[in-house]
């Protein structure tokens, strides 16, 4: 069925027949539904034949090898067909991003195949349970949505299904970016999961009991996540420069996610504890720590300041242009860097808490009203001056909160690791408001609650606040 969908896609690119396009979408939808059905049966009846698991993996590889390169070609074909549209640059950026996403999906499948086979040759047990079901359940629907969007041809049959397909075919690229970033993050998470499960056998073969070499190899993973954090900050500035402020904020959320993930991965791999043979140092300054601070500077100090300056410079009102917003942007960067430097030099840190609001929290707080300011700039509404003044004041407040060291803020990333309910609530809040005009308001309200959270969280002991394991609370209680 997927191969039939590819044939239909080739035919659509040649003669733009809407009925052929409609047939190709039905083929892919049927293939996705059948994949879910066979997974449902396998989970309940649990067939013991190893051939079934091998066949399922081979079919996944074949399907992904067809769908995602086909989608990449389709996006290029759509870009050529819409070369005269107003979103010329955005379409080109989307084509490049889809290409990177397709390469990542295929790379992840081959990497997983290599890691699994190497572990089996070293005597490891084959994992019969589908450990990457979340990636499979997300990749297939997103692949179908991208196919619908890439090869969309109007004028198909008059039916409710085609009306739904037409809605997906005309879905805004901003919403597609959100889905694609989600799939990209899940694929990187799947790569990390395979490294965690099968990486021990690889390291034993490579390192030959050399603990220093083992740590250097393991440090590649959190450092790669740290680099992704910095790249997200640069990408957010580029999106804001193109006038896509809400997407820029979503990318800053992605940077905060990578900032949380790199620390969690480093602690999980045991890279934060020094070797027994290591000499004690007054300041524990490492390459990973410096790289993390540089990435935080780019994503959470420079990026919000640059986006703030870009938006404020576009407000034509004389009262706004009279404000020293350029100096405020510089002050925000300086105080953010100062906060990061003092965080490194602090010898009396409180486990699980930050002294002053952390720079990711300050960046997301200051950038939340940028969404409203960007929307008012597009529509030239009467609230333009209000939101410009609000952003100006909030930048100052956020910068001051970063150096308000007597105030203790809980590590919200570790709170999400401990509390599944809080994590699910946060994810549902982001997904529920990401496609609405009220996303900026929801983000601002959420972060204002975080600003006042020390009124409650000061009662929590550092022993509880520093834990990431959800089982710790039940056992201690």
What does this structure look like?
- With 477 residues, the protein is mainly alpha-helical.
- The chain folds into two domains: 1-210, no CATH class; 219-274 and 282-477, Four Helix Bundle (Hemerythrin (Met), subunit A) (Up-down Bundle), CATH 1.20.120.
- Helices cover 77% and strands 1% of the residues.
- It has helices at 2-15, 18-45, 50-81, 88-121, 133-150, 160-169, 173-207, 211-218, 220-241, 245-268, 287-313, 318-321, 325-345, 359-379, 384-402, 412-418, 420-434, 439-451, 454-457, 462-465, 471-476; strands spanning 353-355, 408-410.
- Strands 1-2 form a two-stranded antiparallel sheet.
- Helix 13 packs parallel to helix 15.
- The protein is globular and about 60 Å long.
**End-to-end span in angstroms?**
54 Å
| Rg on CA atoms, Å | 25 Å
Shape: globular
Order of helices and strands: HHHHHHHHHHHHHEHHEHHHHHH
Report the CATH C-level class of the largest domain. Mainly Alpha
Strand order of the largest sheet: 1-2
Using the 3D structure, state the CATH architecture of the largest domain.
Answer: Up-down Bundle
Could you name the ranges where pLDDT drops below 50 across 5 or more consecutive residues? Answer: 128-132, 471-477
Look at the helices and sheets and give the structural class.
Answer: mainly alpha
Count of helix runs = 21
Report mean pLDDT, rounded to a whole number: 80
Briefly note the CATH topology name of the largest domain. Answer: Four Helix Bundle (Hemerythrin (Met), subunit A)
In total, the number of domains comes to 2
What's the helical proportion of residues?
over 70%
